[in-house]
Write a structure and sequence with these properties.
The chain is mainly β. The chain has one domain: Neuraminidase (6 Propeller). It has one helix and 25 strands. It has a five-stranded antiparallel beta sheet, with no helix packed on it. Strands 4-3-2-25 form a four-stranded antiparallel beta sheet, with no helix packed on it. The protein has a four-stranded antiparallel beta sheet with strand order 5-6-7-8, with no helix packed on it. The relative contact order is 0.15.
């Protein structure tokens, strides 16, 4: 009998412990990224979606109507904010800080995505800018700025408003200076040109234009090649090696695939090509093999501010998932 009583008591305690475990509050795992990286919810607003050919992460898109939005691969609006005159918007490697050019104010702003707090502002004390064309973080953690109005490329630390290094441009003025694959690719204007420099500013190569009329925002997608948009109507996207040989191109002269003054192109991890088709009010992904549009956010030639619409997008960049 005593053994039975002890067994019943043990069973009772075991059930109580089990119940206590079930009633304990569930601890949520913190989301590793910024608000702009959250998975989307609600309906998709994609105009085109084929065979899962979209971006692998959320896209941060800047627009000429003073809006910045984060769009999920499924076409959901994840995050948005107002920003006066966003020339270009790129993201730090941690995915938590926006790097925004403000051409009309001649400033570059580093702003925390979650809090909206300005971490640093270039263009006032220590570093004067004039009409900055682009600003991105390189692999060294520095911010590379195309200071178009003063015809130079500036390398600045994220801990100081003073420049670490300045590379003056003797012929033409840098319109963009985009870091990737261990180099910085400078797209210049007056005259047009594409120049590859090291991350300390030393010139490595000058790439022949390969028939491009208005090259825009070239960026390296591997050490020996760049992708560049030709900002014309109809527009083109071209991949060039460092000798100027055309490796791949896209540029229908008519139909729904025709580009209108594209601003920026970049190669996604799967090899497909992301294009900011500014004049057509859309951001698209082109399948490298078929040259079909497999993903589209925005409606061709129809500007708007409602979900699913864009207004003259100026840049689009993948938002890294997380980091500190």
């Amino acid at each position: 009998m005593r053994a039975l009583a002890l067994g019943a008591l043990a069973l009772s305690l075991s059930l109580a412990a089990c119940g206590a475990t079930q009633r304990a509050p569930r601890r949520e795992t913190p989301w590793p990224g910024s608000a702009a990286t959250h998975p989307g919810g609600g309906p998709s607003h994609l105009a085109i979606s084929r065979h899962g050919g979209g971006p692998p992460l959320n896209l941060l898109i800047a627009q000429a109507d003073d809006r910045i939005v984060s769009i999920s691969p499924r076409g959901q609006v994840v995050w948005r904010e107002r920003q006066a005159d966003p020339g270009t918007v790129f993201v730090s490697r941690t995915g938590r800080t926006e790097i925004i050019t403000e051409p009309s104010a001649s400033q570059v702003v580093l702003r925390r995505i979650d809090s909206g707090a300005v971490a640093l502002r270039y263009g006032r004390r220590g570093l004067r800018l004039r009409d900055p064309g682009s600003a991105v973080e390189d692999a060294r953690g520095e911010v590379v700025i195309a200071d178009t109005g003063d015809c130079r490329v500036v390398f600045a630390a994220q801990s100081s408003e003073r420049p670490a290094r300045v590379t003056a441009w003797a012929h033409g003025c840098p319109r963009s200076a985009l870091a990737g694959d261990g180099v910085v690719v400078v797209t210049q204007q007056r005259p047009a040109g594409i120049v590859v420099v090291s991350e300390v500013g030393a010139q490595l190569d000058r790439i022949p234009l390969g028939g491009l009329a208005a090259p825009s925002d070239a960026v390296a997608f591997r050490p020996d090649a760049v992708v560049v948009a030709d900002r014309t109507k109809p527009g083109r996207v071209v991949e060039l090696d460092r000798r100027g040989n055309v490796l791949w191109s896209y540029g229908p002269s008519r139909g729904p695939g025709e580009l209108d003054r594209p601003r920026l192109a970049s190669v996604l991890p799967d090899g497909n090509v992301l294009v900011v088709d500014s004049g057509n009010d859309r951001v698209i992904v082109i399948d490298r093999q078929t040259k079909l549009i497999v993903w589209q956010y925005g409606h061709r030639g129809t500007a708007g501010s409602r979900p699913g619409y864009l207004d003259r997008p100026t840049s689009a960049t993948l938002v890294p998932l997380g980091g500190t």
